[in-house]
Each structure stands twice: as C-alpha cells, then as structure tokens.
C-alpha cells in the first residue's frame, strides 16, 4: 500500500481545514443575519423562525443591484412641477405573479409574514428546486373603503416571476402561494420613502389623489404598494400605484 507523502497529506489536511473554516463562517453569517431579521421582526410583532436562516442568507447574497431584475414597463408620461417628479404613468404587460393573501392585525405583520413565505418559494422551495432570483418591486395589493378613509386588513403580497420562468412557473410547495396571471395594466406611480403602515399608506393615497388630474379614472378602493427594499430595511424605497380602470 502506497504511503501518502507529507506534502500531499499537508495539502489534504489544509483543504479540509479551509472547508471547515468556510462552513463555520457560513454558519456565523447565517446566525448574524437571522438574529438581525428576528430583531427587526420583533419590532413589527412578527416571529422570524429558525428555518428562515438559509433563505435569508441566500437572498442577502444575491441581493446586489446587478442580481435583481426590474419588472419591465413602458413609460407613458412623467408629470413634473418645478423640477420635482409628481408621478409617472406606466403600462405593465400581462404577466404571471406568485401571490399570497394575508390578513394579520397590522399591515406590517402581513407584509413581513407574506414576504417570508415568498422568500422560501424563491429560495428553492419550489418544484424546480432552484433559486429563482429576485425581481423588484415586490408588490402588495391593499384595499380601502370607497371614501378612501380606512384600509382593509386583507392584503395580497406578490412576486413577479422572472422572464425566463413566465411560461412555466415552478410550482410552490406552500399551498398558500398561488400563481396568478395579471392582465396588462396602466398605473399612476408616485415614489415615497420610509416605513409602510396603515397611516403612511393612507397619507400617500390621499396625496396622489390630490395630484392626479382625473383620479376618478382609477379604481377607488384598490391600490398597490411597490417595495424596492426588503421589509427589514429602515429607509425603504416605495411607490404607491393607482390602477387605471379597465
């Protein structure tokens, strides 16, 4: 039986030490990210379970601007006043979305829990077994009463499927996630920053209603919050979308 040379033994032992070190760093990163999300979750009265550690890590690693695919749209009009952008009128094409309906006590709880379920779907918990990739924005459909003075509890959190998956979307393991095809839609979009809760959303709805020349052309009780940063971020980039009536 041939003896292993000291040199090859050193390299073999060295590579196994490197692998152990990489695994340890991997575990430490997972714990750090999970701990951060759990801390943020507590602020929104949401429990972030331990099985979210891997999806959180995977999403974080693939969350550079180059890795994210923006939802395609056609810009129809930009309305400005004194150099400030008031709103954009856009057309989004027919497309498939992974959607989950939520009805927690608070809006923040609904979007956090809905987003976590979609994260699991994106991070390999689907029939393809693959990481699907991030698309932005993640959107939430909200409903108000006709007078736009109060927001309903039920919301829908939705993830636009990447272009390469539009024809054959992977099936979600979570039966609460439904793949829906949304028709082509014209939206009026206005940007805002910060947290999204019942108060800030109602404020943005009322503000855009005042700015639009003909708000009656849009649905009066259904709106979309588009989120470009994850719910754990402090200073989020959001948009409020009014939907033009079909």
UniProtKB/TrEMBL annotation:
Among InterPro entries, the record links this protein to:
Reg_factor_effector_dom_sf, SOUL_heme-bd
Question: Which Gene3D superfamilies is this protein grouped with?
Answer: Regulatory factor, effector binding domain
For this chain, one GO molecular function annotation is: heme binding
Biased-composition ranges, Acidic residues, are 17-30
The record's annotation in Pfam families points to: SOUL
For the region Disordered, give the residue spans.
1-30
What domain of life does the UniProt record list for this protein's source? Eukaryota
PANTHER family per the UniProt record, alphabetical: HEME-BINDING PROTEIN-RELATED (PTHR11220), SOUL PROTEIN (PTHR11220:SF7)
Q: What's this protein's family per the entry?
A: Belongs to the HEBP family.
Protein name as it appears in the record: HEBP2 protein
What is the source species? Odontophorus gujanensis
State the encoding gene: Hebp2_0
